[in-house]
Specification:
Layout (H helix, E strand, L loop, with lengths): L4 H13 L2 H8 L3 H15 L4 E4 L2 E4 L1 H30 L2 E7 L1 H18 L3 E7 L2 H9 L5 E5 L10 E8 L1 E5 L1 H9 L7 H4 L1 E5 L4 H12 L6 E5 L2 H9 L4 E5 L4 H6 L3 E2 L9 E7 L7 H12 L5
Helix pairs in contact: 1-2, 1-3, 1-4, 2-3
Length: 302
Amino acid sequence: MDQTLSSYYIFYTAASCGNISKAAAKLFISQPAVSKAIQKLESGLGCQLFVRSSRGVTLTEEGSILYEHVRAAFETLDAGEEKVRRTAGLGIGHLKIGVSSTLCKYVLLPYLKEFVREHPHINISIACQSTSETLHLLSDDRLDIGLAGLGNYEMPHTLLFDFIADVEDVFVAARPYLYYLKQSGIEESEILQNCSLMMLDKNNISRQYIDEYMQKNQIAVRECIEASSMDLLIEFAKIGLGAACVIRQFIEPELADGSLVEIPLPVPVLKRSIGFVYKPAKHASKPLEQFIDFYRQAKTAL
């Protein structure tokens, strides 16, 4: 842009008013200052923008072309200013959250339901992917906050982990499937070694945590069926496809109605912590600050 923004605004105001004196009054500057600014703009562009007469000024063909573009530019600026004012006044903003599909359904959504009701002007984007990918995106500033479970990995030192609750991994199966194993002569203490064991895929943090547990306790798996989500594991177990490794807090209804039965373990799996993860900043966005304040006040035990 060869000319200053103020020169274009003076031109825009004069064209809108159709009169130099009216433009000067609106801009709180002198008429000569308006005329000089327009002349400088015409000189820089190499063409005449106005036809001057005793009744005021009218745009030339070149002036009309320039006016349409300048008008669109200043209307866009006005709209931007208004949006900023509304954002600051009403809490409008954008919050980007990263989370695994399992934690999204069972942990994040209950929080979001009430948060959205209290802050309807905040636009929320949810990116569902593995915990490791969520942490990577947070480190690269492509997410505002994530929900993750601690496992056998180190949390990046640049990120803050805000504890929400502890969860417990358990193995479950449908009662008919356990009866079939018993009829096949398999003892209760040998179920995991002899069943069709269903777990999340190997890239999942929860799966890696369980693999470490089984290796430490010398539990050899004969057959493993992998699934992409815990919901699938739960449904597979309910129809008797095998025994599934799931999180106890997410299957309380099934345990209560007997559709799934917990398999006793010689050594319980240690509980894991889940929480919100974000990069501390001196000037966090207002939506992020509001969400952090909200979940800290609304923490509920799983």
